[in-house]
Specification:
- The chain is built from three helices and 45 strands.
- It is mainly beta.
- It starts with a strand and ends in a 17-residue tail after the last strand.
Amino acid sequence: MTQAGDFGATGDGQTDDTEALQHAIDEGVGELVLPRGDYRITRPLTVNLAQCGRTSIRGESGTCRILMQAAGPAFLLKGTHTTTADPNSFRPEEWTHERMPQVRDLEIVGQHPEADGIRIEGVVQPTITGVLLRQLRHGIHITGRARNILISSCHIYHNTGVGIFLDAVNLHQTIISDSHISYCRLGGIRIEKSEIRNIQITGNDIEYNNNGGHKVPDADGVPTAEIWMDASEGSIREGTICSNTIQATYSPNGANIRIIGQRDAVNAKAGMLTIAGNLIGSQWINIHLSSVQGIAISGNSIYSGHHRNLLMEDCSQVTVGDNSFGHNADYGVERELCTGVTLLRCRDSVFSGNVLQDCQTGRHQFPGAPELQREALLELQECSNVIVSHCQILDSAPYGVRIKDSVDLILSTSVIADRRSPPLQKSAIFWTGETGTSMIHACRFSGFQEQMVVAPVVPVLCLPASIPEQQ
């Protein structure tokens, strides 16, 4: 263990400590400890693992602060890994010099518009724990080739870019856990132009990552998301988003979770992901899936999506089960609402065991947002081979379920009801256009003004044995 002061670093907030700290890193001291103080640096500190060997940079119990007064990362962790995570692919020098560099127990504050916190390039097993990253551009920026990344117990707060940015990276086995990621203008966790396998995002509080905390007009047109996975270039597979609180404030075209694949590709490039056990709320769209394949959404509480709680476009093999789509009753109906679910051009999917309950219906105006006009809590358009079962679709208007030009659907064992007096729901189901060999079976409908089901001639239409009396 070597103290930063052994190489002349003062930590007085006035002296430029860049040379002293870089000297200590280059000497390969192993663990470099920074006692309490403010360490001013004016260029990135590079940890070149192939040269300096196994390295850990540690602040004393979070009392150390790095003041980054230049463009680029305060710490650049640089390795030479170019293969896979297979143990047989590692070169001996990667184990002797480069494995598991650590940055922990310190704060990095940006004092330059393009200052970043930590950048990771070509590193095996980098471990970032107990770090506070604020007033930066990107908190943690990962690029190039990397393996086995651990980010835990961090505070990534009020940055102008992205909290954790996976940017043109080839990355396997990543865990982001137990961290607070909020008020980062361009997103909490963002993936672009990357090849990703095995990413776990769990136990985090990811909130308000949009323009709201930065006094930037929403008219800049930059959409954001707390978690943004964009595989329009590259691919993203094998991962979980579990046990997080993922909340926001409204921003134009914003989402709490947005996952984007490749619509016209034979392989959708985004999929084999699970979204489970999260609290997700308060954005234009809560979950937005575009051109994904093989995703499970289960056991979430999803609320106050001002446009839609769940929007799926051009998706296949998606299961949506046992979720609560609702609103936060603490804040009143003028601010919080359940706007339901839309499936557009989706196929081979299941929507089962979900509860959708509206607190405002039909036309709605949210302060600062476009006026909303929706037809139903559940909408399916140009879909095929989709099963909807065991759902509660409550207090919608003008319809409970709206289906258009969709074929080979099954709607079964569900309740579609308007319990208001008088009911605002015209019909439980309004179906137009193509139907294929579709089925409506063993459902309970109540509280409709005009007609229980409005539909073209469906080849197989099995209505309930007894229909509740019209209220």
